[in-house]
Amino acid sequence: MKIKELEIFAIRLPLIDxxxxxxxxxxxxxxxxxxxxxxxxxIGYGEAVADEHVTGETWEATYALLKNTLAPLLIGENPMEFxxxxxxxxxxxxxxxxxKAALDIACYDVVGKKLGVPVYQxxxxxYHEKFPITHVLSIGTPExxxxxxxxxxxEGYSSFKMKVGTEVQADVKRIQAVREKVGKDIAIRVDVxxxxxxxxxxxxxxxxxxxxGLDWLEQPVVADDFNGMVEVKAKTSTPLMMDEGLKGFRxxxxxxxxxxxxxxxxxxxxxxxxxxxxxxxxxxxxxGIECQIGSMVESSIGSAAGFHVAFSKKAFTSVELTxxxxxxxxxxxxxxxxxxxxxxxxPGLGVDVDESVLxxxxxxxxxxxxx
Length: 371
Ligand SMILES: [Mg+2]
Known about the structure:
Layout: E1 3-21, E2 24-38, E3 43-48, H1 59-74, H2 82-92, H3 97-115, H4 119-122, E4 131-132, E5 135-137, H5 142-154, E6 159-163, H6 168-182, E7 187-191, H7 199-209, E8 217-218, H8 226-235, E9 240-242, H9 249-258, E10 263-267, H10 268-271, H11 274-286, E11 290-294, H12 300-312, E12 316-319, H13 323-326, E13 340-341, H14 355-361, E14 362-369
Parallel strand pairs: 5-6, 6-7, 7-8, 8-9, 9-10, 10-11, 11-12
Antiparallel strand pairs: 1-2, 1-14, 2-3, 4-13
Helix pairs in contact: 1-2, 1-3, 5-6, 6-7, 7-8, 9-11
Bound molecules: magnesium ion (MG).
Residues 191, 193, 218-219, 243, 265, 294 line the site of magnesium ion.
């Protein structure tokens, strides 16, 4: 099996409501879709959602890098040879994990289709039967966040992820308001997205929040401040998760050496796709660290890829891949049984792409094929 052609679509996915986190407000999500065609006519899809705040990649740069450098490298290659393909990409380009993830995911999709098995069967087989879906609360007033949580509880959600990270005391009020509204039996995790900046601010906040029984606190300090994470972990009792600080293997090594977090949020867009995500999960598992799969708010394609990883590994104890639930239009049909997700048993990612929607959402596109 050889890769014959790669089409690259720069799309914008329309959001139902703006997505507001500490460092940005999104009205729509810019994404890149890769369509891989093999010589025997099989098709696989991949996705890159670049986040300049996290990995330094932009939508435009990811498109250019795929078009000019990475896609041409893979033409004529066997999509089954993951170790070699990643080495080839890594030798050609340092970092750029989202761009590499798009090609990695498309290869897994097409290999699953070739072998007639879901992607999770390529990753060790299904371990989890289903995961609960956590509803993400965008940053708003304490009253608005509490009201949103209350209305989602009525839909069956029993777990919330609060986005905070603007100003410490305002955030404390937000978290207190949601806890008061939903009661003590509902799970709440808090993602600060680096917004409390340092350990001093974080410890100040947590002194007021420790008794609220939060599931965990995610990335309160700036991404590179591993020592800050170590200090917060030592001086507070709420479990601590690293997200933006943990991208690839080097970060995981430092995290393990310093014991800088109890949990890690692995994202295909931060580490370069399914194949490196599995390596990170193995590293974490050996160090006794729990894993979550998260996303950059991706379509059905990127989200399904994340789910296949999560479903195949015991080390993954939570998932946050709710992109498709946030879009008013999606290119694929990944199915959620809110408030749970189960994966189907269809080959590859198990997602059908609606090409007419793909073309509707496309801003620009290109095709790379054999020379
Ligand atoms: Mg996060």
